[in-house]
Each structure stands twice: as C-alpha cells, then as structure tokens.
Design goal:
The protein is α/β, with parallel strands linked by helices and about 625 residues long. The chain is built from 21 helices and 30 strands. A hairpin with a 3-residue loop joins strand 22 and strand 23.
Length: about 625
C-alpha cells in the first residue's frame, strides 16, 4: 500500500481530538505547519481546552494571538522572541528547566501526552521515514501518545542519526501543504564582524564547538575557515556551520562522542541548508538528551560554548539576547552547555556582544537589575568579548572582573562605569581611570610571534586590568632586574603604585605587554614602553622581561615594535638610560637598525637613538655622546 493511500485531510484528523487532550507539536523547522494551521483555524466544538506541548516555538506569531484558556494553551520550555510576549501576557506557560532532563519528564508522564503531531519525510523503499531537521523529544512523545499523526512533507530532508522511524509507527498520515519553516541568513554589521574576529582568536585547532544562530555566528564561521580539525557538537545546525564544514576546517576526528560526525538536534536555516542535509552522512541528528547531556558534552576535549548576549554586568552576569532572530539559548539550555564545558578537559565558555546596542545604549552595565532572561552562573563564564577586545574572567576577583569588562566597554561609557563601580564598592574608592584612556587605546597594536624553542607569544597594548598580572611579573623577577628597570631598589609594588603604572596616557606614551599561554590562563612575561619627552620628538625607552625568558629574542622583537610605533606617531628617535651592568639590554639596542649614541656617566649608560642621520639629539643627551 502506497503512503498516499493512507493520507487523510487535516480536518478529519481534528475529529479524533477530544477536549482536555494534551497535544505534542514538533519544534522549529520541524513543526507540522499544516496540522497546526488547521488546528488554530478550527471552530469544531471538540477543539476546546487543549494543552499544546512544544519545546520551542519559532513559527509565526499570528497563531499565538488565538491562544486563550478556553480553547488551547501552549506549554513551552523556552521562550523565543516569537513567544516571549505571549509568556509575559500570560497566554503561554513557560516551564523553566534543563533541556537534557525533558526526555525524563515526558517518560515519567508528569506531563501527559495524548496526541503527537510530527513532521516526517516520505518513506524510503523499506518503509522508513526521517524526522528531518528536529529530533528533540519527538520519539518519546510518540511513545507516550495514544494517537500519533505524521505530517509528510516532501521538502523536508531525509536526515540521518536518531531520526529514523517506521511508517507503521503512525496511526494517521496527512500530507503537508505548507513548506518547512525557513530562516534567512543574517546580515553582518562591521561591529559584529570585529567581535567575531576577536572570538576567533580564542578558538584553537581541534576545538569542539557549540554554535548558535544570528549575525555573530555568520561572521564567526568566516573567521574559522583557516582552523584545522574542528569538531561540531551543537544544539543547532545552521547555514554558517554548513559553510564551515564545507571549508574543510571541520573533521570531527578529535571528538570522543560521535567521532567523525557533526552532532546536532535541530537545523535552522535556508532551503539551501535543508537540501545539503538530505542524506548527508557527516551530520548526525540526535535527541536533545544526547546533545545537551553535560556528561556527554564533557567527554569531548576542548569543548567551547560561544554565546551571544544582550547585556553583561560588571560581576559577569549575562542577559541573553531576545530580539528578532535570536531564537536559541535560554538559561536552562545554557546550564547544560556550561556544566558540560566545565567537565570538558580544556573546555571554555565565551560570551560575545557589541559594546553598545542599536540604540546606542551600553551593553556592559554595572548591574543587570530586572532584565529578563538572565543567566547567573557567572563562575562558568571564561571570557566576554566585544569589538574592543577580550575580558578574561575565569578565576578573577570581582574587582579584576570589573576592570577587565570596563576595558572592553565602549570608550565613552568607561568613565561612568568606573564611577558607578566605585559607588557600588566593586572597585576600590581610589581606583584611577583617565577619562581619555578608552578613546585613545591603540587597537592596532596587536601581534603574535613564535620565538626560539617554539615559544608562542602574543602582544597587545597594556590596559588598566593588567594591574594584577603586572604585579605578579614584578614579584617574579630578581631584585637585580628590578634595580635595572627602576634604577633603585624597590621591594614592594602596592595597588596605588601599580595602577598608576598600567594606566597609560596613550596620547604621549606607549606600553606593550608580551603574553604567554591561552587567553584564559595568560601570563605577562615582558613589558616595553616609551614616554614622549617634554618639548622633544623623542621617546624615553624602558623594558622589563621575565628572566625565565631571557635569550629568546623577546626584547629585540619588542624593540622593533616600539620603533615602528614611534615612527608612526611622528617621533624622531629614542633615548634611554641603562645601568652599566645591563650589557644584554645594551646589545639589544646596538643590534637594532639605528645607530646608538652613548656615554657612560656614573655607572649609567645614556643613549640616544635617532631614526634619521642628522636629527638633533635632545639637549640633555648631547654633551659627550659617542656613536657606537
């Protein structure tokens, strides 16, 4: 018997419904739209006091306008932008909970299911169908329901994994007259592109990723195509992920769970994505319990959750995005992902957002207060990223978190954040923060270099939140090195001194730090700076390098960086003073590209390094300088 001969009209299906029944509806792109359309349009007297169960709702809002207590009521586990207003209005019941535990809830019959409406593909020659682009808990719902209705949609892809069901599992069949729910790709604004570029710096070869939808992830996938052996274990599979897989950056061979396969529970995207997923063996669809089970997630090493957010406060709490197109993560799902990340060896969580929203209001705030959709597991967040940089939060004090987040806020918002944080006693009352530091911070000074022995070092300008890391560097180096840097013995470097040292006036000065290790565990191993002399177009040089990393060429490399930065800023040369015993630093300058003029005066070498021959040397360095 051909399946078409078993098909009945949707109106006839509704005749099997009785008042008070609970009806499960497939979620997302897999919503059986023909059945739900007829259900909401029906004026049959038996279509009354119905309970609708749907994990997430992504379909059009018009159907939600018909919800009322008398005819039907929707219960959902996640409030998307579609249903959030209905939840607030009291027309939709939101059930907070972890997605990984919903299967157990359905199996326990605590939420009864009488009828299941499920979208499926036409059967293959053996009589088996695929549930297509959403698995979630459809199989469990079918097992509990006394009436199982399959809506056959010829435009739904035959996906592989835990999607295969027998046509005989369905009591009734209808044929879809509505197309699947498609989602357009998101345009990417320059600010989002920059946020994505910064996030991509934190993704390493071999990382296993959980993706989301939205402009941030469109931009991020473009920045990951040069990576190698990435893995995908993602609640949602999108066009951006399809492009990433097709680029060759994804192999899934370093995963432990479903090795060699990209694992997902839902697909959301264009018709092109759905066509690509049809009979595609590299994408494995699994039930939501498998995809969001923290233990399963944790078995994958280097699992990375990337999450977009609406707001972040100075304590590291986040509010999830809820605008149009922000369809995905709620606190319950995030909890599963974040716990799984903590169980993963090398796992980390990254939150990305622009420093300001489309209305120009700050996205980094002192306190979230009464914002909806908050996620308060602040200890689970490793880093927050904006277009202005990366704030590493893991294992930092509340004060250090606040400093790091202020450093990546919009420059025009930073002074107000500092003042408000002082009032809330998040920052010390004596915390300094020059008003112009945010506007002047030189984002162009970024780099990376591999030195002898494969030591990989990153470089960026110093910022106020480096206070603790610079303090650690000060106490790591020897007394002799401290004396060489500051010219007199210093035994302590308290907060008052160090915060002055790291608050750079970038109008006249430059400070570059050298960082070792991954961003969440980075260590400052060197710092180099110059300060413009008063009334002279020369910069006064100073260096400090952790003695454990002497001899690698780090100082020489940073000297080259400072030369270029000084020339770009119109300086005509450098001056420096180094102690007579500091021959290593003297050699750094002498090996540089410019001639060094020097004289030894009371155990101190006074140096002048003009960038062009014939450039007048600063007055106080002229006297008896000799070229070397």
């Amino acid at each position: 018997m051909q399946w078409q001969q078993r098909v009945i009209a949707p109106e006839e299906v509704l005749s099997y419904i009785r008042p008070g029944m609970s009806i499960f509806l497939g979620s997302g792109v897999a919503e059986p739209r023909t059945l739900t359309k007829h259900l909401f349009a029906s004026d049959y007297p038996n279509i009354n006091d119905l309970e609708l169960i749907q994990l997430t709702r992504h379909a059009d809002f018009s159907s939600l306008k018909k919800l009322d207590y008398q005819q039907y009521r929707l219960k959902t586990f996640f409030s998307t932008w579609i249903s959030s207003e209905a939840v607030v209005a009291g027309n939709v019941d939101l059930i907070p909970g972890r997605f990984s535990q919903i299967k157990e809830l359905i199996q326990s019959s605590r939420i009864p299911i009488d009828v299941a409406f499920v979208q499926i593909t036409p059967p293959d020659s053996a009589g088996y169908c695929s549930m297509g682009v959403a698995v979630d808990i459809a199989r469990e719902a079918m097992a509990r329901a006394s009436l199982v209705v399959g809506e056959i949609n010829t435009r739904t892809p035959f996906t592989l994994g835990d999607t295969i069901v027998s046509l005989s599992d369905f009591d009734i069949l209808v044929e879809a007259t509505e197309p699947p729910l498609y989602f357009k790709r998101h345009p990417v604004k320059p600010v989002i592109k920059k946020v994505a570029e910064n996030i991509a710096q934190m993704i390493q070869d071999g990382d296993c990723l959980n993706f989301n939808t939205g402009a941030l992830f469109e931009a991020l996938s473009q920045n990951l195509v040069s990576k190698k052996h990435l893995g995908i274990h993602s609640t949602y599979f999108t066009d951006a992920l399809m492009d990433l897989v097709k680029s060759g950056a994804v192999s899934n061979y370093r995963k432990e769970v479903f090795r060699g396969k990209s694992v997902t529970s839902y697909a959301l995207g264009t018709s092109r994505l759905l066509q690509w997923l049809d009979h595609n063996p590299v994408v494995e669809f699994q039930c939501i319990e498998n995809v969001l089970n923290p233990v399963q997630i944790g078995r994958n090493p280097n699992f990375v959750v990337i999450q977009d957010a609406r707001k972040v406060d100075l304590l590291g709490r986040i509010s999830f995005s809820m605008g149009k197109g922000d369809l995905i993560t709620g606190p319950g799902q995030a909890a599963d992902l974040f716990i799984g990340t903590e169980l993963s060896a090398g796992g980390r969580t990254i939150v990305g957002l622009p420093s300001r929203n489309r209305m120009g209001a700050p996205n980094i705030v002192v306190m979230l207060r009464d914002l909806r959709n908050q996620f308060n597991m602040r200890e689970s967040i490793d880093a927050v990223v904006t277009e202005y940089g990366i704030a590493n939060l893991k294992w930092r004090t509340l004060k250090e978190r606040a400093q790091a987040l202020i450093d990546i806020a919009h420059p025009d918002d930073r002074d107000a954040l500092v003042q408000a944080a002082k009032e809330k006693r998040i920052l010390s009352p004596d915390q300094i923060y020059p008003v112009n530091i945010g506007r002047l911070y030189p984002l162009d000074i970024m780099g990376e270099h591999v030195f002898k022995g494969g030591v990989k070092v990153r470089f960026r300008p110093a910022r106020p939140s480096d206070e603790t890391a610079m303090r650690y560097l000060f106490y790591r180096i020897s007394k002799k090195a401290v004396h060489s840097r500051f010219f007199f013995p210093i035994s302590v470097m308290p907060h008052q001194k160090m915060q002055t040292y790291v608050n750079i006036d970038y109008r006249t000065d430059i400070s570059v730090v050298a960082l070792l290790g991954e961003p969440k565990n980075e260590t400052i191993i060197a710092e180099a700076r110059f300060a413009k002399l008063d009334d002279e177009e020369f910069g006064d040089l100073a260096f400090i390098v952790d003695e454990s990393y002497h001899g690698l060429g780090i100082a020489s490399y940073m000297y080259g960086m400072l030369i270029q930065l000084a020339k770009d800023r119109g300086l005509k040369g450098f001056v420096a003073e180094i102690l007579e015993h500091n021959k290593a630093m003297l050699r750094v300058f002498e090996k540089g590209e410019f001639k060094v003029f020097s004289r030894l005066d009371d155990g101190v070498f006074k140096l002048a390094i003009p960038f062009e021959e014939g450039t007048p040397i600063p007055k106080r360095y002229k006297a008896t300088l000799q070229g070397t």
